[in-house]
Structure formats: C-alpha cells, structure tokens
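ligand=adenosine-5'-triphosphate
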Amino acid sequence: MSETATAADEADPHAADLAIATTGLTKRFGHQIAVNAIDLAVPRGSVFGFLGPNGSGKTTTIRVLLGLAAATSGNARLLGNDVPTELAEALPRVGALIEGPAFYPFLSGADNLRRLDSADARADPATRDARVARALDRVGLTHAARKRARAYSLGMKQRLGIAAALLTPRDLLVLDEPTNGLDPQGTREVRSLIRAVAAEGTTVFVSSHLLAEVEQICTHAAVMHVGSLVAQGSLDDLRGTGARVVRVETPDGDRTVAEFARLGLDAAQAGPALRPRAGEVVVEAPLPDDGPAAEDLVAALVAAGVRVRGFDVARPSLEDRFVALTGEGFDVAR
Ligand SMILES: Nc1ncnc2c1ncn2[C@@H]1O[C@H](COP(=O)(O)OP(=O)(O)OP(=O)(O)O)[C@@H](O)[C@H]1O
C-alpha cells in the first residue's frame, strides 16, 4: 500500500480513510446522464452497499471506478489513487467481479484459476498452486476443484469468480450484484463469504437492488436514484434520521387522536388496521425523542377509555426512508 500523502489527501484529511471517493462524478451516454455528479465516500473497512433499482447507474459507476469506462467529468480516487491516471497503482489491490464471471467451461475450477493467476505478471509461478488451493478453500470450493466449470451451479460460478478476485490479498473487493440469479442457498453462501472477507479487513463495495440484502450484510450504504446519489452513510445513520412514530390499533380512533393531542402529539388516523376487526383503525403520531415514554402513552390511552388492540413505537424502516427518498419501492426479496 502506498503511504505517500498525495495533494488530495492533504486537501481533505479524510481522503486517506476512504477506499473510494468521488466528487461530481458524471457519466453521459449521448444526451443521457447515467451517473449524475455523485460524491461517493466509502470508508476503508466498511461493507458498503451501493443500492438502487435496475438502471439507476450502479454498474456504470463501477465501470468508471475500475477504468473500464471514462468519466465525462468529475474526479474519482480508488484506494487513494486518482482514476484513471494512477489506476495502475490501485488495481493490483482491488479484486472485482462485475457482470458475471466468464470462465472456460471445459477447464476445471482450479485450472481456470491457474490460468487467471498466470496472467498476473506479479504472481510468482512457484507458489501458484498454493494460491489457487487457498482461494478455492476460502470460497468453499475445494471439493469441486477438479470439476469442469460448466458443471458448476450459478452459485458455484459466482464463488469461483470471487475466488479469482481474491487470488492475491486485496484491500478492496468490488462486487456488482453478486447474488443476482442465485437460489436461496447460493445467495446465503455468497453473503456469508462477503462477511468473512470483510472480517479479514478487506473493504467490500457491493452493488445491489435488494434492500434486505444491504441490511443484512452492509455497515454503510449509498442510494442511487436515476443516476443521482440521494443518501449515503452508515446504516445506523440512515435509519436514525427518521423520527420515531407511535402507532395504535384501536376501535376508538377519535378518542385516541384527542388523547394524543392532550399529550402534545400531532396524531392522525392512518387508515384501517392491517387485519381490521369491526371499526378498528390505525392512529399514528410522530413521537419526538424527548416525548412521553411508550408505557406512559399506553397508560394514558387506557385511562382515557381507549381500547388498545395494538401498540408500537418504531423508527421508519430503511425501506420507508428509501421509498421516501426515491419515490420507488425496493425489491424486498430476501
Ligand atoms: N454503454 C451504454 N450506452 C448507452 N447507455 C448506457 C450504457 N450503459 C448504461 N447505459 C444506461 O445508463 C443507465 C444506467 O445503467 P446502469 O447499468 O449503470 O444501471 P444499474 O443501476 O447498474 O442497473 P442494472 O442493475 O440494471 O445494471 C441506464 O439507463 C442504461 O440504459
């Protein structure tokens, strides 16, 4: 790793803490803006979810970061190195899996990795077999090392792709939709592999259109919406910015609203309950962090003669937040 402080590091004291940093990064295809002036800040050591629906610009951003496409304007740094002028310095420390790995179908998994390793001028041929064996072991494919790649399941191919990306130690692993098309078992395998790689200190930048996936494996996230970055930060920060909401299911809607008003809460009926019983409604009110405690609210409602059938205090879920930001639903498949 280069320890030399660059001009940009001096200008921004946090730059050295970032595995990926972009400012105003823009990519146009003709008149279409695929990536619109995004400022990404991916902390070193994070598992960073790059979240957005299909077509929101994730793959294009990744292609620019890896030097596979040229930015129209803006700046990007990968592991502290300018993209594209210093990319050659960063790339040996970056493993990437984008748009599905391509393997020779008639070669075994191990032979595919050997070929890729031999294409790396820095890789010592004398230790090649050991590297390949370790990479296969890491992704749980030792048992299938001699099997032809064409006989691998999609999940095994994806893991072989990650093994290829991890043939040499990496500071950053970039994965574009790594669980796309996988069955639940393959999905679990790839996700636990990502956690294991991150636990060893590698920063992982993973794009996904699945909010649940990002919630399960990521420490940080950025949300893309038609080419723009609409939010980023730690998952706790992204969750925490929404105010708490108290929610009551009751047949006594008007009385609940009145009691909440007496307690200083701005309540409103929010439609019928999910599984309504006769006349039951949901009443919701924003609950400030210094507002009444949940147990006091319940006690006050009961004392006022409200029949409380359901009661809940929660912050809006990440999904609620992201739908509010992007105006779109996310695929919530697990
Ligand atoms: N080579 C290209 N030429 C023209 N338009 C492109 C090209 N590559 C991407 N686009 C357009 O740029 C926009 C962003 O695409 P991109 O593939 O980056 O999105 P994405 O978020 O990765 O979605 P997906 O998950 O579907 O790949 C889309 O509207 C796409 O059609």
